[in-house]
Design goal:
Pfam families: MFS_1. The protein is mostly helical and 394 residues long. It contains 16 helices and no strands.
């Protein structure tokens, strides 16, 4: 039984990894797509925005619409739609169609992650729920650290269509693995109306606010980290990849290990990790001119950010109680809102005050996030009666 559960979690990890690669791949081949479709870089950049909006808005909507369905069937259907959404741009070379396909791909990724959490947590004892979450969500971190650089290399070598073809093939592999290894998980909890009462309770929204603040702080600085490394740290070219790899690998390690801390105390983990991320931003600003220290700080930053994600997810689901199935899609939406807000804030800052300004902006947001995370530590799940109704009991 333990082996079957581990195989299921590995399959869900792989599915999230493939989707994470597809989400971020466009960034590495943006110039190729713009040239091929004869649009500006800015227009091609809407492919990134479209995907994020698909996840943030479409993910919860699709989760609500499929909430009464068998989870295995939803996962299989999601992978089929995802593969088709990535195939369409290869067959119809039109920017508008591409944008629409990216919205759809983002929406089904949000659905896959939400249903993946429900499935994984249903197969393990409650005391191992955090670890199940960390295995699944680490697929995103590993895709950012390894999958995207490899996909970008393929795209730069054989064209962006070659990278997307690789995503389609990997999606098919994930589909076959899901059919073969993921067991049937019947519908959980009540209908959408009943779950929404718990999923959108003030205690849940408070933790989602922490999500938004933390990732706004991170991406205010991270979006513009290359200009910072160029202008302040004094590095350029291939060496920048080393610094980004340090962050990416540490982020993946943090995501893997964060589940154990979530199982021990998700609330405390959130406070420590948020404070750690703020400290890293401060250190980045103060020691930005010392390259070895910057590399160490970026690695620590990645650990804290990756390590808090399982706790964020765990807190939202546990505080939602009987609304956990619907609430499982909300952290991804909150994270994408934070990413969009942080990137915008960092862009405004760098435009007016120079390359260090996004780091300062991120630090200010992080300072606000720390007491917010501390305050949410006092929030409690629904009553014992409601807790008995939660769908996450194996």
């Amino acid at each position: 039984m333990r082996t079957r559960t581990n195989l299921t979690l590995a399959t869900l990890f792989f599915g999230v990894f493939v989707m994470g690669c597809a989400e971020l791949l466009v960034v590495g081949v943006l110039d190729l797509i713009a040239a091929d479709l004869r649009v500006s870089i800015a227009a091609a950049g809407t492919l990134v925005t479209a995907y994020a909006l698909g996840m943030a808005i479409g993910g919860p909507i699709l989760t609500a619409l499929t909430i009464r369905m068998d989870k295995r069937a939803v996962l299989v259907g999601t992978l089929v739609v995802f593969a088709v959404a990535n195939l369409v741009p290869l067959l119809v070379p039109d920017h508008g169609v591409f944008v629409a396909a990216r919205v759809l791909a983002g929406a089904v990724q949000g659905l896959f992650i939400a249903v993946g959490f429900v499935t994984g947590m249903a197969l393990v004892p409650p005391e191992r729920a955090g670890r199940a979450i960390s295995v699944i969500i680490s697929g995103i971190a590993v895709s950012a650290a390894l999958g995207v650089p490899l996909g970008t290399l393929v795209g730069q070598t054989v064209g962006w269509r070659g990278s997307f073809l690789g995503i389609i093939l990997l999606s098919v592999v994930a589909l076959v693995a899901t059919v073969a290894s993921v067991p049937s998980v019947p519908r959980t909890g009540g209908g959408v109306a009943g779950q929404a009462r718990y999923a959108f309770a003030p205690r849940v929204l408070a933790v989602l606010l922490v999500n938004v603040l933390v990732f706004a702080a991170v991406y205010s600085a991270l979006t513009y980290i290359v200009p910072f490394l160029n202008g302040v740290t004094g590095i350029s070219g291939a060496l920048i990849s080393v610094f980004l790899l340090a962050y990416g690998l540490a982020n993946a390690v943090g995501a893997f290990c964060g589940g154990r801390f979530a199982d021990r105390s998700a609330a405390r983990t959130l406070v420590v990790a948020t404070a750690g991320a703020a400290a890293c931003l401060l250190a980045l600003y103060l020691a930005g001119a010392v390259a070895p220290l910057v590399a160490l700080v970026m690695a620590a930053w990645g650990l804290f950010v990756g390590g808090m994600v399982p706790s964020l997810q765990f807190r939202v689901v546990s505080l939602a109680g009987p609304g956990g199935a619907l609430a499982s899609s909300l952290p991804g939406s909150a994270i994408n809102v934070g990413i969009a807000a942080g990137s915008l804030a960092g862009g405004v800052a760098i435009g007016g005050s120079g390359v260090s300004a996004p780091v300062v902006t991120g630090l200010i947001i992080a300072v606000i996030a720390v007491p917010t995370a501390w305050a949410t530590g006092f929030l409690k799940p629904p009553t014992a009666r409601a807790a008995e109704l939660t769908p996450y009991v194996a």
